[in-house]
Amino acid sequence: MEIIKLRDEYIKLGQALKAANLVEDGVEAKLVIQDGLVKVNNEVDIRRGRKLYDGDVVSFDGQELRIEK
């Protein structure tokens, strides 16, 4: 499981996928999120702008990342 450290209060879902190198760019992030391939805390979320806070877990393509303060 990869850890994403927050610099601010939150990070948006698309930004987190890019920061973890799970997607190459914002366009790819948008597509995989819209296609329902990304889960946040074990629930599919299709909002690219979803705000992720400390403790949230994102899963995509068999990989997980945890958001930490």
Walk me through this protein's architecture:
It is a single chain. By secondary structure, the chain is an alpha+beta fold. The chain has one domain: Structural Genomics Hypothetical 15.5 Kd Protein In mrcA-pckA Intergenic Region, Chain A (Roll), CATH 3.10.290. Helix content is about 25%, strand content about 35%. The protein contains two helices and seven strands. The protein has a five-stranded mixed sheet, with helices on one face. Strands 2-5 form a two-stranded antiparallel sheet. A hairpin with a 2-residue loop joins strand 3 and strand 4. The protein is globular and about 30 Å long. The two termini are about 15 Å apart. The model has no long low-confidence stretch (mean pLDDT about 95).
Gross morphology? globular
Overall CATH architecture: Roll
Mean pLDDT across residues:
95
Compressed to H and E, one letter per element, the order equals EEHHEEEEE
Strand content: 25-35%
Radius of gyration: 10 Å
Spatial order of the strands forming the largest sheet? 1-7-6-3-4
* Main sheet characteristics: 5 strands, mixed
| SS class | alpha+beta
| Overall CATH class | Alpha Beta
User: Looking at this structure, what is the CATH superfamily?
Assistant: RNA-binding S4 domain
User: Count the helices. How many?
Assistant: 2
Could you tell me the number of beta strands?
A: 7
CATH fold category name: Structural Genomics Hypothetical 15.5 Kd Protein In mrcA-pckA Intergenic Region, Chain A
Low-confidence regions: none
